[in-house]
Amino acid sequence: MTDLTARTLQGSELDDYFDVFRAAFLLDDELLHFRGVLDAGRSHGVFDGDELIGVASRLAPRLALPGGTSAPLAAVTAVGVKPGHRRRGVLTRLMRAQLHSLHEDGGAPVAALYASEGAIYGRFGYAVGTYEAKLSVPGKTPFKSTVDIDPRPVRELGREAALEFVHRFYPTVERDHAGRLSRDDSAWEVRVAADRPGDAGEGKPRFAVHPDGYAIYRPEKGWNDRGPDFKLHVQELVAATPRAYAALWRYLLDVDFAGEVRWDKAAVDEPVVHLLANPRTAGRRVVDGLWLRLVDLDRALRARTYSAPLDTVLEVTDAFCPWNAGRWRLRVDDDGNAEVTRSEDAAALDVDITDLASVYLGGNTFAGLARAGRLGDADPDALRRASRAFATDVAPHCQEGF
Ligand SMILES: CC(=O)SCCNC(=O)CCNC(=O)[C@H](O)C(C)(C)COP(=O)(O)OP(=O)(O)OC[C@H]1O[C@@H](n2cnc3c(N)ncnc32)[C@H](O)[C@@H]1OP(=O)(O)O
């Protein structure tokens, strides 16, 4: 058997990359547009002799963090190993090469991905850091009579005018929610509002724009014996004020032909349920969203701010990135800013790096992990303080796939 080698790719190898990716994901021509956003310098390959058999890349947006800060993110994507070469440690080599290079180069302190299957990435130190709701609301569902709707109209804009508006508007709200990503032009074109029909029967994106927000949605045609029964698939809905949020939801729910408004990547605490006269009409199924990996825990923990002061010592295990293992002191001052240093003091909490990843954005709590038996015999007071410090007012939420 030939030796396997892992390395960063050259620009001339991106076609081969895409061939491996398509073979791994059993694709025909879907996702071809995605090729344009892959950067060879941020892509790793594993070779069996001269043959490229495994690939992993990363995009480089910034990730909004609790407290309104942000940090560079390694947004890991398009990971695949050619059928016929699996379960020989190829993915393990890719993950090692990627995480080690981020650590050695002082690159993004945090990595994130959407997992194709939930059993793959825990062994590499990833854990579910955000959740998302598959939300559905029947068309024409009434609001409570007390809902305050911004009376300025929501207008459908053509693609060019709408993109001009949303490009300007989105950065003003980007840091309102931990979990949101910064976007360059290609992010809009490829990830958020690709000008092509969706993969599951949805049409091209449409843009409903209000002075204080917007919704991007795709209609899916449908007729039954009683008439039109379309579904509107929300791609994203962003509003700067509660009144604009209500106006955009009212607009979507009232679109003629729409039997149902669906949002597959809604926040788990999506406020629309508080607008509905009968909140039970909203269906919600919660699934995992972003899987997070703290590449360098000290840099990652310093990058966010915290909800309460804290002075605690963590004993950290990290089998895949050993530079994170050991004892760390986390001190948070009254303004929520953290200092993270090595420590010799007795640890108050024993945590694996996956536990820190799961609480990092506020999507899970130390208390919740302890109730699952993950934190051993942790001192209840230390747990409470840590949970309070890491807590966030709103659930972290990433609206876009990558
Ligand atoms: C961010 C993203 O892009 S997510 C998309 C990931 N890609 C895909 O799902 C495409 C289809 N699948 C594949 O390409 C491959 O099967 C991969 C990438 C999932 C795994 O690649 P492999 O080279 O086979 O993984 P590797 O041999 O390094 O496995 C490492 C460990 O993970 C386990 N593992 C690998 N894939 C899976 C899986 N799908 N489910 C459960 N365990 C898995 C292996 O059994 C092995 O366990 P061990 O350490 O206990 O022996």
From TrEMBL:
Pfam families: Acetyltransf_17, Acetyltransf_9, SCP2_2
Entry keyword set: Acyltransferase, Transferase
Domain N-acetyltransferase: 4-148
Gene3D superfamilies attached to this UniProt entry: 3.40.630.30, SCP2 sterol-binding domain (3.30.1050.10)
PROSITE patterns in alphabetical order: GNAT
Residues that coordinate or bind acetyl-CoA: 79-81, 87-92, 116-117
The keyword Acyltransferase is assigned to this record: yes
Active site: 121, 402
Superkingdom of this protein's organism: Bacteria
Family named by the database record: Belongs to the acetyltransferase Eis family.
Subunit architecture: Homohexamer; trimer of dimers.
Protein name: Amikacin resistance N-acetyltransferase Eis2
Native source organism of the sequence: Saccharopolyspora erythraea
Lineage: Bacteria, Bacillati, Actinomycetota, Actinomycetes, Pseudonocardiales
Gene: eis2_1
